[in-house]
Design goal:
Layout: H1 3-9, E1 12-16, H2 21-34, E2 41-45, H3 48-55, H4 64-80, H5 96-104, H6 110-122, H7 131-141, H8 145-151, H9 155-170, E3 178-181, E4 184-187, H10 192-200
Parallel strand pairs: 1-2
Antiparallel strand pairs: 1-3, 3-4
Length: about 200
């Protein structure tokens, strides 16, 4: 089958949370790839903290040695791939407002919202749990702030994010980013190439 047709019939599920530095790095790598090829990616927002809780996992953020290594590792990956990156001084935070927000905004602005949210936290050292800062992000994307903050409190949106997180857990996903291709799980930004190989096979 021609490669172009394979790309049209397959997709990559990308499970992410804005507070995940590795999700940011994977997203930036994907953006570089998309300039060259057409990738069909389904972005799946989850609450990483909730996923860890379901799996009984202690996140590296709460282990001093792991945290130090993760910070250094992210900086190495960013440097290697020429990605602008700054470790956020407020890490970790609660990203729930923006994660719910991704579910309510229209499809035509999701890419811009994605870019600005990720850059705010992992490039510009902005606390995206702060409501004032979230408001400034919404202004940049030209989203009605009053409606946004009202809509993210809707029980249906709350349940949708919770269900996406629970569904990820049921699929044996335990971290972010995770890529799923052909029902195969690839965990971590360093497994993106493997996911892409599966995608194009």
């Amino acid at each position: 089958m021609p490669k172009a047709l394979i790309f049209m019939t397959k997709s990559i599920d990308f499970y992410f949370d804005f507070i995940s530095p590795y999700s940011y790095l994977a997203y930036k790598r994907i953006k570089l790839i998309v300039k060259k090829d057409v990738l069909k990616i389904n972005y799946k927002p989850i609450l990483l903290g909730g996923l860890h809780k379901l799996g009984g996992i202690t996140a590296p953020a709460f282990n001093e040695r792991k945290m130090k290594n993760m910070k250094n590792d992210c900086e190495l990956v960013a440097l290697k791939n020429k990605i602008a990156f700054k470790w956020n001084t407020k890490f970790p935070i609660n990203s729930i407002h923006l994660m719910r927000g991704y579910l309510i905004i229209s499809d035509d602005i999701k890419d811009k919202f994605f870019d600005i949210c990720f850059d705010a936290y992992w490039k510009n050292d902005i606390d995206i749990s702060n409501e004032k800062n979230v408001g400034e992000i919404l202004d940049l994307v030209k989203i009605d702030k009053k409606k946004f903050f009202k809509d993210i409190q809707d029980i249906k949106i709350k349940d949708k994010l919770k269900n996406l997180t629970n569904d990820a857990f049921e699929k044996d996903i335990f971290g972010a980013p995770t890529f799923v291709v052909n029902k195969k799980i690839f965990w971590g930004q360093d497994r993106l190439d493997y996911a892409l190989d599966e995608y194009s096979s």
